[in-house]
Queue: 4 jobs
Job 1
Amino acid sequence: QKEVEQNSGPLSVPEGAIASLNCTYSDRGSQSFFWYRQYSGKSPELIMSIYSNGDKEDGRFTAQLNKASQYVSLLIRDSQPSDSATYLCAVGLYNNNDMRFGAGTRLTVKP
Amino acid sequence: DAGVTQSPTHLIKTRGQQVTLRCSPKSGHDTVSWYQQALGQGPQFIFQYYEEEERQRGNFPDRFSGHQFPNYSSELNVNALLLGDSALYLCASSYRAGQGEQYFGPGTRLTVT
């Protein structure tokens, strides 16, 4: 079992729709959770961080964390073509000293 | 506010050679983590440096070593390069090891031939 698992996609949504990205992790001791966006040929860019159960909203982005289910998700509302990228889920172990990434979900937003 | 910088941008080396990659953290950050990202994969944690010491190490061989300088900048050294070392090498900086978000630099694309 991989430490951090994501659906590889591709996930395709129409412009203006809600995109839902999911991630599960195996280590119950994980303490911090992050979503990064990576455009092709570029480095990852931090979108959201979440540390406690529940929802965290930032603009069009909402991160959801459920530690009991070892599940973290990212919702993108009013998706735009510029949101087309690979979204990486990252989980911090040992207080962020060791961050583990999923393989990423490729999102395409069609105009 | 200066972000994370890395050099060089691209590098081509031959099997068996050694390479040194450099990273300067974001202003105000004191911790540097290094990652290797193969094509189509997520970044893999190599190690983290804080207070000029290696604090945590991922599952990488001893051919991978690093250093952090008093100004918080860092180097990643890879000896005896293998073809499989070809990847994007990413540096991420943060404040106080074990706390807060990590911000990535643009990366160094290493090609081993």
Note: Chain A has no helices and eleven strands.
Job 2
Amino acid sequence: RKEVEQDPGPFNVPEGATVAFNCTYSNSASQSFFWYRQDCRKEPKLLMSVYSSGNEDGRFTAQLNRASQYISLLIRDSKLSDSATYLCVVNRWGNQGGKLIFGQGTELSVKP
Amino acid sequence: SQTIHQWPATLVQPVGSPLSLECTVEGTSNPNLYWYRQAAGRGLQLLFYSVGIGQISSEVPQNLSASRPQDRQFILSSKKLLLSDSGFYLCAWRGVGGYGYTFGSGTRLTVV
């Protein structure tokens, strides 16, 4: 079983739609959580951190449920520019510092 | 401000040839440094990480090695490339006490 698992994609949605991505992680030692965005053939870039209380950044809302080891990302009012692959990421701390473990990513395609 | 540089951006190498990819970070000191690989259609896999000069931790057994000769320099090497070494290689850094990671722009390696 992969340490971080995401919804299989791709998600094809019209502009203005609301889309939700789900993610589960298996290692309870995971201590911090992120969503990264990766455009085609580019490096991943941090979209937002995910806090236990849930957090919002404009049209993006992230939620974390530590008991269920579940993370979500909600995008409201999708734009064409939201088309990308969204990566669920957990930071697992050890005696050598933290290591980011990535999910496989879910591809989102927003259509006019 | 901190920046991370990777080069080259694209590389085509024959099977059996050596490899050296370099990553440097500017504007910070004592960063944690990471090498990831993303195979075509796959997620990011952590290859190596380093918490200081000369300190290298390997995540998976493979045909590659890493070195950190200076505080802000991280090098990924191979003596003899395999076809399976093809992929998108990404260097990342995290500052001391930092939270998220920042990625370089990556090197797309094709072994032929």
Note: Chain B touches chain A at residues 32, 34, 36, 42-46, 49, 51, 55, 57, 59, 88, 90, 92, 94, 99-106, 108 (CB under 8 Å).
Job 3
Amino acid sequence: DGGITQSPKYLFRKEGQNVTLSCEQNLNHDAMYWYRQDPGQGLRLIYYSQIVNDFQKGDIAEGYSVSREKKESFPLTVTSAQKNPTAFYLCASSTGQVNTEAFFGQGTRLTVV
Amino acid sequence: LAKTTQPISMDSYEGQEVNITCSHNNIATNDYITWYQQFPSQGPRFIIQGYKTKVTNEVASLFIPADRKSSTLSLPRVSLSDTAVYYCLVGPGYNFNKFYFGSGTKLNVKP
């Protein structure tokens, strides 16, 4: 079945370590996105990519990095520079055309101790 | 970018119709209105989208008045499984969509 796969579902890391969250889609979508969600809050855009080999900062990009070397993959690295990395991270994709819907993965819950 | 305002939370009972209203006073001419549903520890999923008047699908209806400054998501005969957060998104009708999510409305359906 087509969809977006995020892995792992739960991730624990020690403070000061970089960690990479995986996001893979087989929907043949050009656009991909990373969001962060804190308890009881909405989604905040970290990075987005309109097309392979290109990506742009969202509203809260500090302390994060991404790559888009393949159309299907958009990994997110949470670096040690991120002050409060513990959160629920969501990856999404879309065709990139206007008025189309975003398809989301199941999320990765990152806990930094 | 059109700002949206929704109630923080709503309570309902099983079998009732629920209407969630979203205000978007500065909606642009080309903007569409889209609603998403999110269950705990899951990603949001698309419910319905519209531009004007009324749109209906198998799970919901979307009512948009002529001035388009607000919209109402209507869920018929809700069940406990409809307990979720509902987000109203506006735009863009042109250029690239970054899908900005606000805080949403937490709907709590009681037995």
Note: Chain B has a mean pLDDT of 93.
Job 4
Amino acid sequence: SQQGEEDPQALSIQEGENATMNCSYKTSINNLQWYRQNSGRGLVHLILIRSNEREKHSGRLRVTLDTSKKSSSLLITASRAADTASYFCATDASTGGFKTIFGAGTRLFVKA
Amino acid sequence: NAGVTQTPKFQVLKTGQSMTLQCAQDMNHEYMSWYRQDPGMGLRLIHYSVGAGITDQGEVPNGYNVSRSTTEDFPLRLLSAAPSQTSVYFCASSYRSTGGNEQYFGPGTRLTVT
């Protein structure tokens, strides 16, 4: 079964609003990453947070990590229509080899 | 740099046929992997490689073979195609470090098995 589970599965907001997506995982991890996928295209890396970090920022993105709850959140502030995409979390387990496992994703739709 | 390239972009196979999906990267990355993406399922890891000559199974390896004879290339072979293998296939590569790995993805191969 997949390591990461995103919530919600789909999110629709107005341009200018903030979008928050959550990810839960099952096993201990070395790091957690967030990726974006525009329709029909490959995934693009957004941000990586290590297991010893609690919060990280990159432009309009803010990621938090709570290893005690095995969860992470991705916040996109002041969303734009161009942010419309699917967002995936991915985890590298701390044991079990070099596997990066993806969640099912959150589909974000930003209305202009 | 071309990054990660995949061929073909689209392929239709009949049940029982075999084929090879090609993947190449020009970034000298050690780590390469294959994923399949089905609607609502996210990406599932098929096989991965941590360097030339070294491969290992992911979450859904059955029906697929891989080999890694060079750093640049990581082909995925479908041995006897089945309708359940209809999916979009993505190849990815990364330079792994203890701090984590940003994966670079190819554009994908859309495979239909009839």
Note: Chain B touches chain A at residues 4, 31, 33, 35, 40-45, 48, 50, 56, 58-59, 90, 92, 96, 98-108 (CB under 8 Å).
